[in-house]
Amino acid sequence: MDKKSFNDEMVKVVNDNKSIIEKELKAKGTSKRIHKINIDYTTIKRNPMGGIMFGGFVNGEKKLAFSTGLTKYIMSENGEYSDVQSTGVDITEELDDYLSEGVASDK
């Protein structure tokens, strides 16, 4: 597979599984302040340990940023894979404040 096809496939995987990240981000806050997840497509890259790494932001506010990844885990000895799963989400201090109804203001 050439580099463009590989990159296109990674973008497709991210788009198809965006809801996994949205669900994980919403679980970090007690409020319903996340209205939209924006993916920064320039950050999508292959994780050398497997999977895809990328970043994004919430509600169109670039300061409300996060980084995350998606992967599939080998579930059995015959090499069957799990469904796509999040590798975890790291959030900026601003996004943390926003989700906990801190200093960031609603837009």
CATH homologous group name: folded 79 residue fragment of lin0334 like domains
Extended strand count:
4
CATH architecture: Roll
Estimate nothing, just give the exact number of structural domains: 1
- Main sheet strand line-up: 1-2-3-4
Helix coverage percent: 25-40%
CATH structural fold name: Nuclear Transport Factor 2, Chain: A
**H/E topology pattern:** HHEEEEH
Helix-strand category = alpha+beta
Pfam family, one: DUF1310
Secondary structure blueprint with pairings:
Layout (H helix, E strand, L loop, with lengths): L2 H14 L1 H10 L9 E10 L5 E7 L2 E11 L13 E7 L1 H7 L8
Q: Could you walk me through the main structural features you see in this protein, from its secondary elements to its overall organization?
A:
The protein is α+β, with helices and mostly antiparallel strands and 107 residues long. Helices cover 29% and strands 33% of the residues. It has a 4-stranded antiparallel β-sheet. A hairpin with a 2-residue loop joins strand 2 (52-58) and strand 3. The N and C termini lie far apart (43 Å).
Quick structural gist:
The chain has helices at 3-16, 18-27, 93-99, and strands spanning 37-46, 52-58, 61-71, 85-91. The chain has 107 residues and is α+β, with helices and mostly antiparallel strands.
